[in-house]
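Exercise 7b. Backbone tokens:
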């Protein structure tokens, strides 16, 4: 119990506080009654000393030194029964105690020490019993969260509810793996990770960067206990207690707890440690599952490319662990080996060697190896910031060719990107790389139905941003038929030349092209022909 609580709830309340008014928050772990000259060896940190003063030093030096010695031992304070042997603490003792902010209390002689010791010891024992009960409750709740929860999100919510503080878990890139928000002591609904904005997915990045700058990140990584973070980072709502999440010595993430208006208690800190241990076990289990998925055919990447991935908190958490970010831009790169199907034994090993070469090339750029292998193909999810040519240069052709999709993001984007490379695969040339945007027009000219559909969407869909899509299409149709001659187009449409120029400017703006560009004119003329043909086919059907 706190010293201030002991003073308020026991017979110490009739005593007089001589010094240490600002040190009453310290804990009292036990009460000792000692009246022989050699006091120091008999007391320990957190003890409250009761004495009659019978053997208290009478000389100034001794009276001062005993206070220094007891303060150094970490006592919570000294209670002197007055005035039987001493009317008051010696002035030398009081002066030193006030300098050290060390509590001294003078208690009337009539108050039996037994009443004080019994009351305080009873409170201490009751408090310890309550701690044991609450500690067991915390242990059970966190363990149940690990056994029956959805992942670190569920664990963060459980820990936050237990200690009534904001909690979030992040990986070493600062991305949030789970969080719990508290406002005014009332739990707020934690947003579904799949619905968070991109800026919300990485709230710890600035914090980690600042911690690394001032040298605290290494201290957290090496600590076996919660580490308090001072308010020196100039961040809003800065978490002040951290705990490392490790797997076999490897730092995978950090648990953050905001102390809000008061420091965390001992039991809260134990809860943080236990939650950190549970988080480590959960991440270890997820890592094992991820490895198993890789061995069983790269299920995660396959589910994205096939459109089978379901955005739930647990699947997104696992995706995060694997290194895929739903808000990041990616290209899907497909490597097609010059090998017959089914693969021969040598063909199988060649595919494995190419996969290993890709992993090594990606590791040089610290890029997660998000691969999938099937038959004579290897698919790779490559962040848009990495140029495909750099990967191709690292692995060499190795008897393969490479198809590269458009830049996409999110679950639906990965599916569309996979469709891009699927369209390219039949026309790939060995030993070369092919971009979808570069190959789309040749595919259209070869009569590929899917390519034609994508070409029309890419070319004409921007016009849907304008108020009257049909009017814009009619204008563009006549414009292409008249060879982009404005006067002839205006005459056919019955428009003033100024009105036509305004329409043309708006169309060029939303389509991000110039009608003066020869290639742009060809693409628009082709798109209009295809659009008209498809409209006629629909009308005939």
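Sequence design result:
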């Amino acid at each position: 119990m706190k010293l201030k609580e002991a003073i308020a709830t026991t017979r110490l309340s009739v005593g007089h506080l001589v010094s240490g008014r600002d040190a009453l928050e310290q804990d009292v772990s036990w009460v000792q009654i000692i009246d022989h000259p050699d006091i120091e060896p008999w007391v320990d940190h957190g003890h409250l000393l009761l004495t009659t003063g019978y053997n208290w030093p009478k000389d100034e030096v001794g009276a001062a030194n005993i206070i220094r010695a007891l303060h150094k031992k970490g006592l919570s304070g000294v209670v002197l029964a007055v005035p039987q042997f001493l009317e008051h603490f010696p002035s030398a003792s009081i002066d030193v105690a006030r300098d050290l902010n060390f509590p001294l209390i003078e208690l009337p002689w009539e108050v039996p020490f037994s009443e004080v010791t019994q009351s305080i010891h009873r409170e201490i024992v009751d408090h310890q019993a309550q701690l044991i009960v609450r500690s067991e409750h915390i242990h059970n709740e966190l363990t149940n969260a690990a056994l029956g929860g959805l992942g670190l999100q569920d664990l963060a919510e459980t820990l936050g509810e237990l200690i009534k503080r904001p909690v979030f878990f992040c990986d070493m890139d600062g991305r949030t793996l789970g969080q719990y928000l508290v406002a005014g002591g009332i739990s707020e609904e934690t947003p579904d990770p799949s619905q968070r904005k991109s800026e919300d997915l990485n709230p710890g990045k600035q914090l980690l960067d600042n911690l690394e700058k001032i040298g605290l990140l290494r201290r957290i990584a090496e600590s076996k206990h919660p580490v308090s973070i001072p308010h020196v980072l100039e961040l809003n709502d800065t978490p002040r207690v951290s705990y490392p999440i490790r797997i076999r010595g490897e730092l995978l993430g950090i648990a953050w707890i905001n102390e809000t208006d008061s420091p965390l208690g001992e039991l809260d800190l134990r809860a943080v440690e236990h939650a950190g241990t549970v988080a480590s076990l959960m991440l270890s289990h997820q890592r094992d599952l991820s490895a198993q998925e890789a061995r069983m055919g790269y299920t995660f990447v396959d589910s994205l490319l096939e459109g089978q991935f379901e955005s739930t908190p647990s699947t997104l958490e696992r995706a995060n662990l694997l290194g895929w970010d739903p808000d990041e831009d990616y290209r899907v790169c497909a490597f097609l080996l010059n090998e017959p199907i089914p693969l021969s034994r040598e063909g199988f090993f060649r595919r494995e060697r190419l996969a290993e070469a890709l992993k090594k090339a990606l590791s040089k750029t610290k890029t997660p190896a998000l691969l999938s292998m099937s038959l004579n193909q290897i698919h790779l999810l490559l962040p848009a910031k990495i140029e495909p040519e750099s990967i191709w240069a690292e692995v060499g052709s190795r008897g393969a060719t490479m198809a590269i999709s458009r830049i996409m993001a999110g679950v639906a984007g990965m599916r569309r990107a996979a469709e891009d490379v699927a369209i390219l695969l039949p026309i790939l040339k060995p030993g070369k790389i092919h971009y979808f945007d570069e190959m789309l027009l040749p595919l259209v000219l070869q009569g590929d139905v899917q390519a034609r559909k994508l070409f029309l969407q890419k070319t004409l869909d921007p016009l849907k941003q304008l108020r009257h899509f049909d009017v814009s299409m009619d204008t563009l149709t006549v414009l292409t038929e008249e060879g982009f001659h404005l006067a002839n187009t205006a005459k056919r449409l019955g428009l003033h030349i100024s009105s036509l120029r305004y329409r043309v400017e708006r169309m060029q703006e939303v389509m991000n092209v110039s009608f003066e560009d020869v290639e742009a004119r060809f693409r628009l003329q082709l798109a209009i022909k295809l659009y008209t043909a498809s409209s006629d086919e629909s009308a005939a059907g």
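Instructor comment: The chain has four domains: 3-122, 149-291, 322-440, 455-540. The chain has 19 helices and 18 strands.
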